[in-house]
């Protein structure tokens, strides 16, 4: 009997050493979660249950429990390196099979799909029309495209200017854009046509003989767009005409072959105060063609492609997953896990929502293995192995003594 008990102890100590060795071997594995060997004692059971005088029958390995504590977050220079700060797993597609991981070292393959070193594709919720929301009922592969971002024609120019209240009409009463004496003030803004070509829109302000009244003329690339547009202000300097604050200009046909440019000037923020002309803001809503400059991933897992024209196009939102019992997940290797009955039904969501951590772009989660703790466990398991070996030697000596009795 002592041989069996000691042998079970040897097996248990060996299993403990195996678990410890695996933890130590993966101390530098990104996203690795250490394990702990858990043991249970054995007692012989008869038809009448366990006798109160029965001695134990040894020990057995009860389970190897995975430890899903947070690993340290180490920062890198790669925007596709992702770390989860808190609960949750990345969702990956392994040839159509769904797997889960905490290792966020991602790159792109030759087709632009975001993958890990094993070729598993990162899953996102695709954007819906407009890109302001995402379809959380559907998963798709995250793919980066190197195609140019298409241009958008300017449709609105927003102006926030101040016209001097004490201005006098210009010396030359006939407007001529080349003659500064025919207007009081001017400013300009770059606008874009449907092909992304840039054009200069110049705004000229001319004080009339009437109090609180101005004429505004617009030229695009030196060509008049409509005639004089009357602006009137109240005695407190607030714009009265046009009443809506918006001035719609006639269409301008560019020479680039693009569609007509139809501009609306928003003048609601213009004023007539003091004695100085000033431009507080002059913006427009068009942009030219853009080239991909990089990828940005927010804390909520929203993936955006950024372009040289200042635009950002949403590509998807990272699909996060968690489980009622993560320790029950099936280990698949390559720092990935698969669903199992013991883990429970998968719960999907997004980063930053209830029960899900935040995403840190340009960072990786290190292994959660504490090397010092594992070295202490190794010494303890070694001592246990030696003690059980000594137990076998002692039982052998006793057996030999009994055999030698004459």
Structure description:
- Strands 5, 6, 9, 10, 21, 22, 23, 24, 25, 26 and 27 form an eleven-stranded antiparallel β-sheet that branches. Strands 12, 13, 14, 15, 16 and 17 form a six-stranded antiparallel β-sheet that branches.
- The protein is built from two helices and 29 strands.
- The chain is an alpha+beta fold.
- β12 and β13 (198-207) form a beta hairpin.
- α1 (2-25) packs antiparallel against α2 (371-403).
- It has three domains: 2-69 and 368-403, no CATH class; 88-144 and 294-361, no CATH class; 156-284, Flagellar hook protein FlgE (Tick-borne Encephalitis virus Glycoprotein, domain 1).
Chart the SSEs and their pairings.
Elements: H1 2-25, E1 35-42, E2 58-66, E3 73-75, E4 82-85, E5 89-94, E6 97-101, E7 107-108, E8 114-115, E9 121-125, E10 140-141, E11 156-162, E12 185-192, E13 198-207, E14 213-220, E15 223-224, E16 229-233, E17 239-241, E18 246-248, E19 264-266, E20 278-284, E21 292-297, E22 302-307, E23 312-318, E24 320-322, E25 330-333, E26 336-338, E27 347-349, E28 358-361, E29 363-365, H2 371-403
Parallel strand pairs: 11-19
Antiparallel strand pairs: 1-2, 3-29, 4-28, 5-6, 5-9, 5-24, 6-26, 7-8, 9-10, 9-23, 11-20, 12-13, 13-14, 14-15, 14-16, 16-17, 18-19, 21-22, 22-23, 24-27, 25-26
